[in-house]
Amino acid sequence: MPSQGFFADILSDDNGINLHRFENVTWAFIAILVYLYKVSLITKGCELPELSDTLLALTGISSATYLVLKSKENDPPV
After folding, report:
1. Neighbours of 31 (CB within 10 A)
2. Number of domains making up the chain
3. Between vectors from CA 25 to CA 55 and to CA 22, what angle results, nearest 5°?
4. Residue 55 lies in a domain
5. What are the average pLDDT values for consecutive 10-residue runs of the chain, which has 78 residues?
């Protein structure tokens, strides 16, 4: 199938744009912004930022939800 553009390709499947794909891309973008902000606060040496347990838990929940819904994405209708 020909490409429909980067964002349309990562957000949709055979049935169009899916909510779980949109949520995963949105959350990844938010997590990247938080990480880059925390990296910008580092003033000494080569150090990684300390990420909160809440951010890590929400990222894990988002990824698990995506994987569960992705596994059922192209199942034939019952």
Report:
1. 16
2. 1
3. 120
4. yes
5. 83 80 89 92 86 90 86 72
DSSP 9-33: HHHEETTEE-HHHHHHHHHHHHHHH
Site of tokens 């606060």 = 41
Instruction: DSSP letter for 75, please.
Output: P
30 occurs within a structural domain: yes
Alpha carbons 11 and 16: distance in angstroms, whole number: 8
What one-character DSSP code corresponds to residue 2?
-
Q: What pairs with residue 12 in β-bridges?
A: 17
For the entire predicted model, the pTM comes to: 0.71
Domain that holds residue 31: 6-71
* Cβ atoms of 20 and 66 closer than 8 Å: yes
